[in-house]
Amino acid sequence: MIATLALNALTPQLVNLAEVEDDDREIGEVKWFNVNKGYGFITRDDGEDVFVHFRAIRGRGHRTLAEGQKVRYHVIQNERGLQADDVTVIT
């Protein structure tokens, strides 16, 4: 039990597909994510890429994403363009 809790604290929050229906966030796919630099891009359904920073990923500890993962997120506009926020991995 303790090992499981510790592992969960170090990984991004996972969301079950059944829970997604009540969520107003977009669904996209991780195009790439550089673990060393802490950022990458998510591809939206329309093919547009959205910047994602590790701080926008729900979870604790070392927050990262893997290429090809499906994610849910909000899109915000800032001075540099579109950015993902409140990102969770869909299982």
From TrEMBL:
Principal location: cytoplasm
Residues covered by the CSD domain: 25-89
Annotated compartments: Cytoplasm
Molecular-function GO terms, alphabetical: nucleic acid binding
GO CC terms: cytosol
SMART domains: CSP
UniProt cross-references to InterPro entries, sorted A to Z: Cold_shock_domain (IPR050181), CSD (IPR011129), CSD_CS (IPR019844), CSP_DNA-bd (IPR002059), NA-bd_OB-fold (IPR012340)
Pfam families from the UniProt entry: CSD
PROSITE patterns for this protein: CSD_1, CSD_2
Protein known as: Cold-shock protein
Source organism of this protein record: Halomonas urmiana
